[in-house]
Amino acid sequence: MSIYEYNGSALIAMAGKECVAIASDTRFGVRNQTVWREAQKIFQINNKTFLGLGGLNTDIWTLKETFRFHHNLYALREERDMSPKVFANLVSHVLYSHRFGPYFVSPIVCGLDDDNVPFLCGTDEIGAQEITHDFIATGTAVESLMGVCETFYKENLEPEDLFETISQCLLAGVDRDCLSGWGAVVHVLTKDGITTRKLKMRQD
After folding, report:
1. Can you say where in the cell this protein is located (predicted)?
2. Cα–Cα–Cα angle for 155, 84, 72, rounded to 5 degrees
3. Domain residue limits, the chain
4. Which residue of 45, 119, 138, 204 shows the fewest CB atoms closer than 10 Å?
5. In sequence order, what E strands does the chain have?
6. What's the pLDDT tens digit per position in 16-33?
7. Residue 137 and residue 50: Cα distance in Å, rounded?
8. Beta carbons of 110 and 50 less than 8 angstroms apart
9. Which CATH number is correct for 3-199, 3.40.50.300, 1.20.1420.20, 3.60.20.10, 3.40.190.10?
10. CA 119/CA 105 separation, integer angstroms
C-alpha cells in the first residue's frame, strides 16, 4: 500500500458563478481499519481561501500549522490577507523546499480573488501546480471522483446548485473507495460569506 493511501481521503474543489466549493470525507483510518469518523481535512485560511489536504495525517497537521504560521506572518507584515493565488504559491514553495524529504500530502487550494473569480489549484508532493477553472480532486478516491465530476459538472453554477453538484460527486465517488467515507463536509464560499454543511454517507 502507498503511504498516500495509509489514512485514506477524498477531496474535491469545484468552481461556480462567483462562488467556489470544497468538500471532503471525514474518515480517519489506518489502512482498512477505521479509527475516527470526524477527521478534518479542510482548513479555512482566511475569508477568501480554503486549503484541503489529502495524504498522511501526521503530515497534514504539520503542514496545516506551517501554512497558517506563514499566512499570519504575511498578514502582519503586509496588513492584508493572502489571495488564493499567493497562498498557492506559498504552498508550492514550502513543499518544494522539502523536495529531498517530501511531505506525503496532495494539497488543494481554492478561493475567490478580489473580483470574486474562483481560483482552484492542486499540487503534488513537491509543489508542482495544476491550476484549473472547473474542478479538481485528490485522495485515494481521485479516479472515481474525477469521473463523476466530469459527468455532473456544469459551468456557472449558482451556490445552491454548486453545493448539490459537489455533494453528489463526492457521495458517488466515495461509494467506490473503501478507504474513505463515514460522512462528509462541504464548504461553499461566496462573496457574501461561507456556508458549511455536513453530509451523511455509508458507515462501513
Report:
1. Cytoplasm; Nucleus
2. 155
3. 3-199
4. 204
5. 10-15, 19-25, 28-30, 33-36, 42-46, 49-55, 105-112, 118-123, 129-132, 135-139, 184-190, 193-199
6. 999 999 999 999 989 888
7. 14
8. yes
9. 3.60.20.10
10. 20
Which position has the grid cell 472515481? 144
pLDDT level of residue 97 (50, 70, 90 thresholds)? very high
Cα 144 to the center of its chain, rounded Å = 16
Place of cell 465530476: 149
DSSP sequence for 26-83: --EEETTEEEES----EEEEETTEEEEEEE-HHHHHHHHHHHHHHHHHHHHHHSSPPP
pLDDT tens, residue by residue, 125-168: 999 999 999 999 999 989 999 999 999 999 999 999 999 999 99
- In whole angstroms, give the CA distance from residue 163 to residue 166: 5
